[in-house]
Specification:
Blueprint (H helix, E strand, L loop, with lengths): L1 E7 L2 E6 L11 E10 L1 H8 L9 E2 L4 E8 L11 E4 L9 H4 L37 E4 L2 H4 L1 E2 L6 H8 L1 H11 L7 E5 L3 H12 L4 E6 L2 H8 L4 E4 L5 H8 L7 E4 L13 H16 L13 H9 L5 E4 L12 H6 L3 E4 L4 H13 L11 E4 L3 H9 L8 E4 L3
Parallel strand pairs: 9-10, 9-12, 10-11, 12-13, 13-14, 15-16
Antiparallel strand pairs: 1-2, 1-4, 3-5, 3-7, 3-16, 5-6, 6-8
Helix pairs in contact: 4-12, 5-6, 5-12, 8-10
Length: 396
């Protein structure tokens, strides 16, 4: 089959790989009808998430049809249409049964203390092959597959695989409630759906903070107030617009700062790839792990109202060990962070979408065949206007 394969920092390819098959009785094989490129994938490609194994199939967002099941699968049969959650769980351990499915004790083969198991991610997160492929093996299929009703289309469903639950989870982490004023930092797909989640939970006023004009304009269509971080100081503006207080709740949908959009100049791109390869060869990420490279983390801690709450859903690698804790302490802030427990939230959000309350499918801005995926990654990484959420058709 064809799949998008990670070979090294800055190096991906569309390759021919063996067709997957059930390895364990609880496995299923899913034929992907839609996959997607996520900002998290860029962290893998750039080398800012260490521990990727060459040959790993990328991608953690997928919708498809069950093709084959192991002898132990009870809830699904070939022909069932499903969405695949980005994070894996067993469905049996105490964490899964409490709804913390992204902290499953069994899904990560590195052991109970290893943390979240992710499709298409580093070895530390399980090293599972991902979903930017024609077919994928899904372990613990009864726990990890979610059936889709006919009322939910493929564009809506691909957003339910990761970005909609993650955005909604950010609003829940920030404890958004009725009447709250909320600021969302980062207006990519997750940020856009964090805005929608905050509205759904009762926020009266929402600010959208980004430096990309196309993303701010997309946020404006949700009738929120944009703040251009490239042209104005977001902390100062948010305080001015809230009577000097700041928003009650803030959502960090940015995570670790990138090095900025790579230049389209081939020499610049080659130089950047060389830097990433040197860092990886030395067992390092592309920055000093003791530093705090995230402007977003500092802004959120400064902008939120005293005694306010910050929900962190942007990706920070485990090698990053610092945070503006002094600001948090002195302002009596509550910070809640984590990887989204996708499997616990997806059924609720499927009902929301099927009922027509929210339509996350509008977030898909570009559709590409799998054959164009390397170019699609470059366009997405270059932040080309309009390239907010890229859906992939594995069949073309």
């Amino acid at each position: 089959m064809k799949a998008v394969v990670w070979q090294g920092p800055g190096e991906i390819e569309l390759a021919e790989v063996p067709d997957p098959a059930p390895r364990d009785p609880g496995d299923a094989v899913v034929r992907l009808t839609v996959s997607a490129i996520c900002g998290t994938d860029l962290h893998m490609v750039r080398g800012t998430m260490p521990g990727m194994r060459p040959g790993t199939v990328l991608g953690h967002e997928g919708v498809g049809v069950v093709e084959e099941v192991g002898d132990g699968v009870r809830a699904f049969r070939p022909g069932d249409r499903v969405v695949v959650p980005s994070t894996l769980c067993c469905g049996r351990c105490s964490y899964c049964r409490a709804g913390y499915t992204s902290q499953c004790d069994a899904a990560n083969p590195n052991g109970p203390q290893a943390g979240t198991a992710i499709l298409g991610g580093p070895v530390d997160n399980g090293g599972f092959d991902g979903l930017q492929a024609q077919y994928a093996r899904i372990p613990w299929a009864d726990a990890n597959l979610v059936p889709l009703p006919d009322a939910v289309g493929d564009d809506q469903a691909i957003m339910l695989s990761d970005v909609f639950p993650t955005g909604y989870f950010g609003a829940k982490l920030a404890e958004v409630g009725r009447g709250d004023t909320v600021a969302v930092f980062g207006c990519g797909p997750v940020g856009q759906l964090a805005i929608a989640g905050a509205r759904h939970l009762g926020a009266t006023r929402v600010f959208a903070v980004d430096h990309r004009h196309d993303r701010l304009e997309k946020a404006r269509r949700q009738h929120v107030e944009p703040v251009d971080a490239g042209a104005e100081d977001p902390v100062q503006v948010l305080r001015e617009l809230t009577g000097g207080i700041g928003p009650d709740r803030v959502i960090d949908a940015v995570g670790v700062d990138s090095y900025g959009p790579p230049s389209s100049d081939d020499g610049d791109r080659e130089r950047r790839v060389a830097e990433l390869e040197d860092a990886a060869a030395g067992g390092e990420t592309a920055w000093n792990a003791g530093d705090d490279p995230s402007q977003a983390a500092r802004w959120t801690a400064q902008a939120v109202a005293k005694a306010g709450t910050i929900g962190v859903i942007g990706v920070y690698p485990p090698t990053l060990q610092s945070y503006p804790i002094g600001t948090v302490l002195n302002r009596n802030l509550t910070v809640r962070a984590g990887n989204c427990p996708h499997r616990a939230l997806i059924p609720e959000l499927i009902d929301v979408v099927a009922a027509g309350v929210l339509d996350p499918g509008r977030g898909v801005t570009v559709r590409q065949g799998l054959g164009d995926v390397v170019t699609a990654y470059q366009e997405f990484d270059d932040h080309r206007a309009g390239w907010v959420k890229v859906a992939l058709d594995p069949g073309t």
